[in-house]
């Protein structure tokens, strides 16, 4: 038994006594639970991940203990888009071309982790103390991830990810992305305790959004001193640079944009500290500028490496050919995984639209589009602008690259946390009046 198994077991036991605290703590902790951490991982037996185990038990406990216990009677605002996307996932399991039993199990896992769990997060956060507690859990994970990332950068090793790979005894299911110091212009790539550098960068970018919006709009819950606020964001930015990945840079830039406010003194502090760091550490960090420039310059992109424009076009050309074979419902869940393993022209299926069209067909792509549109047009006076940037940022990064280690479920958790915090504080102001 590893520390991951032990903590999962302890949080499940704790949930019988303090469900909300245990549930939210597990959602933060589960960011560290990748595909190599399983309850069961033996040849001939379907792998059951720790994350699925924890979320499955917590979902059942919610239905038994807490379904009607929320202090706020607000109706969940995304019932229809969530339901349609879940139905699309279910169909992709029922009509999959890769084996009914494993496909239905994978569909159930997708619905649980990416649809039902975000819904429960929205339901169980029903006062500002619960919202603050969840924020604190996320901050603990953020600090751990960034601290371990700095250690990884300094030592050039990631013993944790290597060790996790040895725990998965089914060779074909082992997910290890290894990078050397020679990658990306000799600067390497860090991933911390997340399965992939892009996923790591996206996770900390989304937590950065939580830090930014709570410090800006929900000060009664989170109002850190400017020194801590600046240090946290500088640490996040440094780690995003160290991932040497374009996707997280784009996501963070979009998420940060609405918080640039000339009336807020913290904006000036951030920019002054950022410029000072760029000058002081210019010799060390200047090679990373090429990765930033590569977002806009094809010549720089060729130097950095990774999938280029032509490779992405080839992936989409192959996608449309496969989609045409089953345009309405697609080939079913896990079909893209099998195509990647068989080294077909899909390469790494580096877009959510590739997966949606191939696995769920037009119905799945429309269901995903409907969800994104619903999130984008959702109105919450005072924070609508920030939620639009959050949705747009996720849509952009998930459209241009895959995000292993950062699923749509975590994006939805962040979105719904901000949405529910707004409801809670709005109710508090009305009660005070």
Which characteristics define this entry?
two-stranded antiparallel ribbon, 19 helices, mainly alpha, 433 residues
Provide a brief overview of the structure.
This protein is mostly helical. Helix content is 69%, strand content 1%. It has one domain.
Could you describe the 3D structure shown?
With 433 residues, this protein is mainly α. The protein has one domain. 69% of the residues lie in helices and 1% in strands. It is built from 19 helices and two strands. The chain has helices at residues 3-15, 19-29, 50-66, 79-94, 100-124, 128-155, 159-167, 183-186, 197-217, 226-242, 246-256, 265-280, 282-293, 298-304, 309-325, 335-341, 352-377, 384-400, 408-432, and strands spanning 38-40, 48-49. It has a two-stranded antiparallel sheet. Helix 1 packs parallel to helix 3, helix 4 (79-94) runs antiparallel to helix 17 and helix 17 runs antiparallel to helix 18. It is globular, with a radius of gyration of 21 Å. The model has no long low-confidence stretch (mean pLDDT 85).
């Amino acid at each position: 038994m590893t520390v991951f198994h032990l903590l999962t077991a302890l949080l499940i036991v704790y949930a019988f006594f303090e469900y909300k605290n245990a549930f939210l703590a597990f959602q933060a902790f589960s960011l560290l639970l990748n595909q190599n951490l399983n309850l069961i991982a033996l040849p001939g037996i379907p792998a059951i991940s720790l994350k699925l185990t924890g979320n499955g038990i917590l979902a059942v406990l919610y239905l038994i203990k807490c379904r009607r216990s929320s202090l706020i009677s607000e109706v969940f605002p995304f019932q229809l888009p969530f339901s349609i996307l879940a139905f699309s996932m279910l169909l992709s399991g029922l009509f999959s071309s890769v084996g009914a039993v494993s496909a239905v199990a994978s569909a159930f896992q997708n619905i649980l982790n990416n649809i039902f769990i975000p819904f429960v997060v929205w339901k169980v956060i029903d006062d500002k103390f619960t919202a603050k507690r969840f924020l604190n859990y996320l901050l603990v994970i953020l600090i751990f991830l960034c601290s371990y990332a700095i250690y990884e950068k300094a030592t050039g090793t990631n013993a944790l990810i290597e060790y996790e790979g040895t725990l998965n005894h089914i060779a074909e299911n082992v997910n290890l992305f290894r990078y050397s110091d020679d990658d990306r212009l000799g600067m390497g790539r860090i991933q911390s305790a997340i399965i992939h550098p892009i996923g790591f960068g996206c996770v900390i970018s989304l937590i950065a959004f939580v830090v930014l919006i709570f410090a800006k709009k929900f000060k009664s819950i989170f109002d850190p001193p400017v020194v801590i606020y600046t240090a946290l964001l500088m640490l996040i930015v440094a780690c995003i640079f160290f991932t040497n990945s374009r996707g997280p840079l784009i996501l963070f830039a979009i998420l940060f944009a609405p918080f640039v406010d000339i009336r807020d003194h913290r904006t000036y502090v951030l920019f002054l500290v950022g410029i000072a760091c760029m000058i002081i550490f210019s010799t060390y960090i200047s090679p990373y500028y090429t990765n930033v420039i590569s977002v806009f310059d094809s010549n720089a992109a060729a130097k950095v490496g990774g999938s280029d424009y032509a490779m992405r076009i080839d992936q989409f050309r192959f996608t449309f050919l496969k989609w045409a074979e089953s345009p309405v419902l697609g080939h079913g869940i896990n079909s893209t995984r099998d195509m990647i393993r068989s080294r077909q022209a899909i390469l790494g299926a580096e877009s959510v639209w590739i997966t949606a069209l191939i696995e769920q067909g037009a119905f799945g792509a429309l269901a995903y589009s409907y969800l994104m549109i619903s999130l984008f047009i959702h109105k919450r006076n005072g924070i609508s602008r920030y939620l639009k940037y959050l949705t747009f940022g996720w849509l952009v990064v998930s459209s241009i690259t895959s995000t292993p280690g950062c699923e749509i479920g975590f994006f939805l958790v962040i979105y719904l946390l901000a949405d529910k915090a707004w409801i809670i504080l709005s109710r508090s102001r009305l009660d005070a009046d």
